[in-house]
Design goal:
Layout lengths: L7 E4 L6 E3 L1 H11 L2 E3 L4 E3 L11 E5 L2 E5 L1 H4 E6 L2 E6 L1 E3 L9 E4 L1 H4 L2 E6 L4 E6 L2
Parallel strand pairs: 1-10, 2-9
Antiparallel strand pairs: 2-10, 3-4, 4-8, 5-6, 7-8, 11-12
Keywords: Aspartyl protease, Disulfide bond, Hydrolase, Protease
InterPro entries: Aspartic_peptidase_A1, Aspartic_peptidase_AS, PEPTIDASE_A1, Peptidase_aspartic_dom_sf
Family: Belongs to the peptidase A1 family.
Length: 128
């Protein structure tokens, strides 16, 4: 999927998905064939589509991080049926803090993150 949106990003262990500007998320969801859950900013996707979903590439400070469809779709069950939550949420954070992307558990499950507060930096590695 290709969508270029320059914005601030934060990492948040309290957010399950990747959250970002509603218009950008809607465009990504539409390309993937995800269907909006009315009034929530969330999307569902047919579980059979997951193996065919394209990789998503995020670029942070010049480093590229890749997530596969299996990594950005959250499988769950509802009423005994398997369901697939498209791991993106539309949120609109106004300036001066926004537009803003929140990299939640969908990202953090794959990339181990080290916060170096002393030197005001972060490091990433593939999680084992």
């Amino acid at each position: 999927m290709s969508s270029s949106h320059l914005a601030n990003a934060i990492l948040d262990t309290g957010t399950s998905v990747l959250a970002g500007p509603s218009k950008a998320i809607a465009a990504i969801a539409e390309r993937a064939g995800a269907v909006p859950i009315l009034g929530t900013g969330e999307y569902m996707i047919d579980c059979e589509r997951v193996p065919k979903l394209p990789n998503l590439q995020l670029t942070l400070s010049g480093a590229t991080f890749t997530l596969s469809g299996h990594e950005y779709v959250v499988k769950t069950s509802a009423f005994g049926q398997e369901a697939c939550l498209f791991g993106f949420l539309g949120i609109d954070v106004p300036p001066p803090r926004g537009p803003l992307w929140i990299l939640g558990d969908v990202f953090l499950r794959k990339y181990f993150t080290v916060f170096d507060v002393e030197k005001n930096r972060m490091g990433f590695a593939l999680a084992a």
